[in-house]
């Protein structure tokens, strides 16, 4: 049982007292927390409201706008575990204390350079006029080092929305390029933006994507062929599809359409990044790292803007992949044929299902990644929040795969709409009409034609992206994040 005695503040300069009393049945995790006598300047009561709102938002599991005792205990346990992970990662010497040199090194790893004097100011940090304590020093005993108890007592009642060390390792990066165009853009620190390091990350990511897509292009073209040509009566398999492509145009035909697929990486990445930064400002977020809902909204909108800008290139990629040997002499020739025969609107066929597919892809991708991340942190993070390369690649691969699975029917309908005019005698159907036609003639499984080669390319695409990205970062002089 927890008893709270609260004297409501009045608008005078006197301090107002808040007292928490400890009972014998209080859980052991809270013993050190609730034996407090706090004083709050009455004019700072707004700070209390802001603090309470943050804590309720962080711990309210049933979304009733209130924080009951069980939710509060759960919040404190979870928050204390994250704080311990950060403390152990900051404690470079592993001596149970954090000093100014360790703070300087940890911030340097994040791309932020500070002086020793600034680091000492962090150690001596004072919190004034807040609900947790009107005056509270992080370094209580004046030793210029912080032990675990000092670190925990200072931070425990303050929700850390952006714990830097965990964010550093678990950033859901765009290096996981599986040839799709729906990934949520990466985020960069203020230091990376000021030093111009961000564009080197984008160049490294773009180069990694180009190599990855080129290596997996045969599977990507096979996927497009199966999406368009495979039916219940014409069951195109993996081996049969490759044999058909080689017989029709030789080994070189396996990479047909890959040129435009690689060319669209640069403009799409640049537009998506710029749109993402502007949308973040519009939604009123001045934080370097957004919450999952904000990332979903901002990322989906940025993806929609980027896709709208480069969508004609998507149509060209599909038409080139489906084209016969000698049908087009190149990208420009293909564009000229489409414009002359079908008009400008042909370059935006399948646009609606493509836009609709962004939301389930990005949403499920982010949700699965966050779930896997939290699960790993809860079960296996004991001494550090660094999961290692294998865990990050596995989480990125699984989340991307789930996102693709959810949005795949829309992607298939988009591809068929893009290809309709290239198939002689094929009726020009709307999105809903095409959905009904596929389900009626091929069953629900018809919405997943080409899924096998699409999934086959995920693991090699992610692995190749990561290896090339890391090597390009070294070449460009980019520090590891």
From TrEMBL:
InterPro entries referenced in this protein's UniProt entry, alphabetically: EF-hand-dom_pair, EF_hand_dom, GDC-like, MCP, MCP_dom_sf, MCP_transmembrane
Domain EF-hand: from-to ranges: 78-113
Primary site of residence: mitochondrion
Gene Ontology biological process terms, A to Z: left/right pattern formation; transmembrane transport
One MF term in the entry's GO annotations: calcium ion binding
Solcar repeats by residue range: 196-282, 290-375, 387-475
Keywords assigned: Calcium, Membrane, Metal-binding, Mitochondrion, Mitochondrion inner membrane, Repeat, Transmembrane, Transmembrane helix, Transport
Membrane topology: Multi-pass membrane protein
Top-level lineage group: Eukaryota
Localization annotation: Mitochondrion inner membrane
PANTHER family the UniProt entry points to: SOLUTE CARRIER FAMILY 25
The name this protein goes by in its record: Calcium-binding mitochondrial carrier protein SCaMC-2-B isoform X5
SUPFAM superfamilies: EF-hand, Mitochondrial carrier
Family: Belongs to the mitochondrial carrier (TC 2.A.29) family.
Keyword Calcium among UniProt keywords: yes
GO cellular component, one term: mitochondrial inner membrane
Organismal lineage: Eukaryota, Metazoa, Chordata, Craniata, Vertebrata
Gene, per the UniProt record: slc25a25b
Organism this protein belongs to: Danio rerio (Zebrafish)
